[in-house]
Fold this protein.
Amino acid sequence: MSFIIAAPASGSGKTTITLGLLRALSRDGAVRAAKSGPDYIDPRFHERACGAPCVNLDAWAMSPSRIKALAADSAPLIVEGAMGLFDGAPPDGKGATADLARILGLPVVLVVDAGKMAGSVAPLVNGFVHHDPKVRIAGVILNNVGSPRHERMLRNALEDIPVFGALPRISELAHPSRHLGLVQAQERPDLEAYLDRVADLVSTHIDLQTLMVLDQTVQHAEAISRITPPAQRIAVAQDAAFAFIYPHILSDWRAAGAEISFFSPLANEAPAPADLIYLPGGYPELHAGQLSANATFLDALRSTDAQIYGECGGYMVLGETLTDADGTLHQMAGLLPLETSFAARKLHLGYRTLNATVGPFAGAWKGHEFHYATTLRAEGAPLFTAEDAEGTQLLPMGLIKGNVCGSFAHIIDTC
């Protein structure tokens, strides 16, 4: 049993249903999770739901062999898609969840928000079923169903298309969210109770036995090229402000013999002795006052001879100031000539091809940018040259000054 949970569009209920399935199925045996595309938040919910690590499978940034290697294991795999099933990056939609279905040969279970339709569900689902013969729609899960009568109308309209279940309309199951997505898993004290409730709902309204016999398994892949560690000893910031790092990157580093330690800037911890200090992205803007006051953490950055690298939120903390959403200015580490602000937010979103000639990540990379921060000032030598998904040259990204560098881009894999 392995399959992909996808939908015609975002907001259809994929995440809630995926979490319910993972928790419900894990009660009877091992099950794994994966997330399509560049997402740091949903995978942590997946891990809590099933008790196993969740990997990102990115069909734009990763090779098919990398995707197959990350997906391969003996335990069943449930992949949560992103956006609509066929929605990917311009110009040709590469990176869509449908690409994962083709690469892995997995069937798709389509989640349809049926809250505002009845007979119209048939042409919608039939369009997805017949759109691409290389993407097999095994059946649908109806979501946001108003009543038993509504469910009968939907099932009758779908005729011979398998319906694995129908979930009733329950508004309180919606997840709290903020500007980069859901509130993080570690920030929800009610998470276990929530997961159990969703699992009970899924168990009641979805035919788990039929899903469990979908006849596909993930095939093993040939050997792949992994990311070389940027240093032997790597200290990684990890807490609610610095949580956005891909597990496959840490796994690659460990497999190559790198020593990885973790520290919490929010707890005012200094990193262990290291050759590279890595500040991942996250939500430093929500904790800017606390970070600004944490002298042990900041002084450790200012006094070290180690290389320091910051991504997105980590990059902002390496700058001079960060202005929060309320307009309050906070002093940061002051290691890069950079000032950023959330007082006037602007969305920056998209895949990036990156090249660096210096710094710990010299070379060519596939990455992603997703933030609302505004750069008020950035002076000095840039870290990366950059192109978007269509190959259009962008302005250089990031800064490098001495042993300190960073940018708003999140590295995903090598080119």
